[in-house]
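(Deposited chain)
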Amino acid sequence: QSLDEKPFSVFLKIPLLSYRLYRYCKRNKINTSVAFLNRPCYINALMRTLWRYKGNIIMCERTHQTTILGSNSWLFRTVSTSLVSFSYKRASLVLVNSYASKQDLVENFNVKTPMQVIYNPIDLAIIRKQSVLPCPFTFDENTFYFISVGGFRKEKNLQFLLDAFFIIKQLSVKLILVGAGAQKLELERKVHDLGLSNHVIFTGFDNNPFKYVKRSDCFVLSSYVEGFPNVLLEALACEKPIISTDCKSGPRELLAPGTDLHHSAITSFEVAEYGILTPVNDVANLAASMKKMYEDKNLRIQYQTKALARAEQF
């Protein structure tokens, strides 16, 4: 797909691409096709429907479809919802990386295909080794460091995190943003406009974010949608207290296991078993939860004590 290609021209190509895939599988005697992301799933579904592909088709869901599609136009949302439902019903097996995503496909897309949840794994040995490597700057022992790691993309909601951090800037705190992406200039501009230039550190993209996480005091995830956020697992592996939005999907399963997946923090933040969950897009509550983590040393110690054991389950 070229960058200037229109969405509906992309849709129109799907039958042709499904035929090409079918011919490739038949010529090479391939009896299992694995698809990630929506478009490849549509192509595989049509390979089954139009060309009677007899092999196994495994489709992998890595996000929360209802939340993702909800941010688009009515027409795109309607067409995409129908295609997702059509596709997954033609799979031999659907793999999802959270129970909330599985629940979403069953309840909102009427998918009855066999589904299996496989959580994302982490390599504790690698994280442990990389987390003790030197940092390019010195952490001030009299400053409390919040940290967020991830691509500078819309769904990561970093502008919202900056708004919350602005509320507590009078405390002895700094915010480290590890990552890069399309929103970098917007974020830098917002930091300047909010007068936070001396409080926010941009590290740029780094293959080893663990050296920053390990030396920080609290990890913050501000996303409005996720699939199953590896960064939370990695923060647990670095034995860090966590604050996360209670977005779909993953944070609740990680930080408040055993609670109802239909439930979400809506009016106030929730002090859960392995971290604090805050309402999505609620600046006041995110700021309040950050202030609590800053002030409540006993709570931080409680989370630090539990973190590694939780990470080891993955």
